[in-house]
Prior knowledge:
By secondary structure, this protein is mostly helical. It folds into two domains: 53-106 and 115-208, no CATH class; 215-243. Helix content is 50%, strand content 9%. It has helices spanning 3-38, 53-56, 65-74, 77-80, 148-152, 179-228, 231-247; strands at residues 61-62, 84-88, 94-98, 133-134, 139-140, 155-157, 162-164. The model is unreliable at 33-38 (pLDDT under 50).
Amino acid sequence: MSDNTKDNDNNETKNEEKKxxxxxxxxxxxxxxxxxxxxxxxxxxxxxxxxxxxCLSRGPIPITFWDLxxxxxxxxxxxxxxxxxxxxxxxxxxxxxxxxxxxxxxxSETGAQEDPLKETPIEELLEEKCPLxxxxxxKCLIYDNRPLSCRTYPLEFDGKNFSVVDVECPGIGxxxxxxxxxxxxxxxxxxxxxxLTRIRIALPVLNQVxxxxxxxxxxxxxxxTMSKLSEEDRKKLDEILGKSIKQEPxxx
Length: 252
């Protein structure tokens, strides 16, 4: 067999593989459309109208490893650090979130609190704006590095079905969305679901590792401090601790 014949065969094989891939993608789209039709659902279309409502009242934004990797790659992690927080949910699980700033107090133009260590409960921040959205300029300050959750909003995927998390979003139902744009949005929603699951599995383990590390470091520091105390200082410390123990009320 000649080299030209082999090349032609290879090209034909590659073309067939491409056709099969395209065919599979089209079949998947058709299956999803058919499924929506059977359930009586209206076909999802969306075009962002730049109304800014989602940015002005978004509340805490879930963050994934995908976001962290993107920020690390682009060297912008420091921009997000002041707003990142691990949130313990009522069921005991964890989420890494981009936490909004607390609303300004009456008579104050800033969000400063009297007690710098006081934390505002998440429940009080559900309608607050994204901390990285400039309200005056109507501009996202980190648009190129925005989280996955923002990229797929208002569409979500739960592992089986797609859903709209904000039915009042004015962009829903807007015409002009191409099939490619719809596919990209669905793919992003699927990626968000996968990444959110991944970080929710990892966070409890990481939390235990970090907590253990902190406790070990504190114990080490205490031991080093104790070793530097003079004999007289140790006796004074023992007296203080002894008095403290005696003053503690007996358990009922």
